[in-house]
Specification:
This protein has 16 helices and 15 strands.
């Protein structure tokens, strides 16, 4: 799917876990200084987010939103500038930086590929995701490969020694409640003043719980009333845990995604699918294309089915109008001729077969048969009304119908030029549709004047020989019937 060039992109700067806002602010300033060297840049806006940097906090983050000059005033596309920025900021130390183009139509023009890995054990899912990340990095055109497990929080884990807490007359629940009350606080009493009630919450100051040493020295009241440190009854450690756990169909899943540059996401998705088919997955674990890639494949399949149904319905309508099964069959040959021209024009212009291109194919099905209908109908008129022989009618009909066929075809083809050559915002989305309609109709128009008459003569002679062999009477001439009735 081609990406939309709206002249906007964003740079996300993440500092290490537990960093303060000042750290990510300094890193963001470094990136901003680099971005100022881009000649096409018009403006930047920065937003910082995160917590105070205490234990358990997520990474501090800065988002730099950039706006470029209008695409008519620059030589490079947004994707090319984004790729240049990626190479520019990749060596900034102490930060994880990602760059992506912005689009208001990202749902339709998604340029990334996503893989969903399903299973139960998080450690195994992490191992598989790391393997897929490495394999995906070997595929041409992939950029910024990320996993949903990359975003992690830090938490303090308490491994309580059951034997020791029994000696002190405690249970695991007692220890957990005391730690919770100390860290989060507890409501000691309620103060009533002027008819209002206020809870009095007792909690330790933040500096008493902001590092591991303070947590180890936390006081725990034993069963006999004595005070002991938490480290005497529990092993305390720091652990990295996922910020979120995704679940679908009662199974955990992890996503590995990447941006695409220099290739269309469809071909990259095919390479990723081939890569997944070669990986031996453990029992109970699966990996498949998901997210926007899965949606795009489903959409392509749906549009393909719609095109087939359109062809069937078109044949049924023409069969009813011509009162013949053969003439519509001949006209239907213009459709593959049109598809050939459409694919050829996409190929020489380097445009991928996108969703909008498939919609163009759907439109093409209803347009290209018009020329065949005009030609075949006039051949039938010459034979039935004026008594022309087969060859004589074909030779007379083609020059006569050349002008109206060219007029209708050229008006439609020229009408696609604004979509093909437009350089406005989101014009890439409609370019594929314009190329399909213009290329398909041009090829179909030219070949209709050559292929359709030849097919008409070929099938008519076969039909005549078949009727003679089985003594089948030909269809009544409507003009002769009309004369007899009058």
């Amino acid at each position: 799917m081609p990406s939309s060039d709206e002249g906007e992109f964003s740079v996300t700067v993440k500092a290490p876990k537990g960093s303060k806002l000042e750290v990510v602010d300094n890193l963001s300033l470094q990136v901003e200084e680099m971005l100022e060297e881009i000649p096409e840049l018009v403006s930047m806006s920065v937003s910082l987010s995160g917590s105070s940097g205490s234990i358990g906090s997520s990474s501090e983050e800065s988002t730099i939103s950039c706006t470029l000059v209008d695409k008519t005033e620059r030589d490079r596309s947004t994707d090319e500038i984004v790729e240049d920025v990626r190479n520019m900021v990749k060596n900034v130390a102490g930060a994880e930086i990602s760059v992506s183009a912005s689009s208001s139509m990202s749902s339709m023009l998604s340029s990334g590929v996503e893989v969903e890995i399903t299973g139960d054990d998080m450690d195994k899912l992490r191992e598989i995701s790391e393997q897929i990340e490495y394999q995906m990095s070997q595929i041409e055109g992939t950029r910024q490969i990320t996993s949903s497990l990359d975003d992690q929080d830090t938490q303090i884990a308490l491994n309580v020694d059951k034997e020791k807490i029994r000696q002190y007359g405690l249970t695991g629940s007692d220890v957990a409640n005391q730690v919770k009350n100390t860290v989060s606080g507890y409501t000691a009493t309620t103060l009533k003043a002027n008819g209002d009630e206020m809870d009095i919450i007792v909690v330790l100051p933040e500096e008493r719980t902001s590092n591991l040493v303070n947590i180890e020295d936390m006081s725990i009241t034993a069963g006999d009333g004595s005070i002991i440190p938490l480290s005497a009854i529990a092993e305390i450690s720091m652990e990295d845990v996922p910020s979120s756990i995704n679940r679908g169909d009662q199974s955990r899943y992890v996503t590995v995604s990447c941006e695409v540059y220099g290739r269309d996401s469809g071909s990259v998705g095919s390479d990723v699918q081939n890569m997944l088919s070669q990986i031996s997955m453990p029992q109970g674990y699966t990996a498949k294309l998901g997210g926007s890639s899965e949606t795009m494949n489903d959409t392509f399949s749906a549009i393909g089915l719609v095109i087939v149904l359109a062809i069937v319905l078109l044949y049924m309508v023409m069969a009813a109008q011509f009162e013949s099964l053969l003439n519509p069959f001949i006209i239907m040959f213009t459709i593959p001729l049109a598809f050939t021209g459409a694919i050829f024009l996409l190929f020489i212009t380097g445009e991928p077969i996108s969703m909008m291109a498939l919609i163009g194919c759907l439109i093409l099905v209803g347009i290209v048969v018009n020329n065949g209908i005009v030609l075949i109908d006039y051949i039938n008129i010459l034979r039935e009304r004026d008594g022309y022989e087969l060859t004589e009618a074909v030779l007379a009909a083609c020059p006569t119908r050349l002008r109206p066929i060219l007029m209708t075809a050229l008006t439609t083809i020229l009408g696609q030029f604004p979509m093909i050559f437009s350089n406005g915002s989101n014009s890439e989305m409609l370019k594929g549709m314009g190329l399909v309609i213009a290329g398909g109709l041009a090829t179909s128009t030219f070949l209709t004047l050559v292929v359709v008459p030849l097919l008409y003569m070929f099938f008519d002679r076969i039909s005549s020989a078949f009727r003679r062999k089985f003594h089948i009477k030909p269809k009544a001439n409507p003009f002769e019937v009309e004369k007899e009735c009058c």
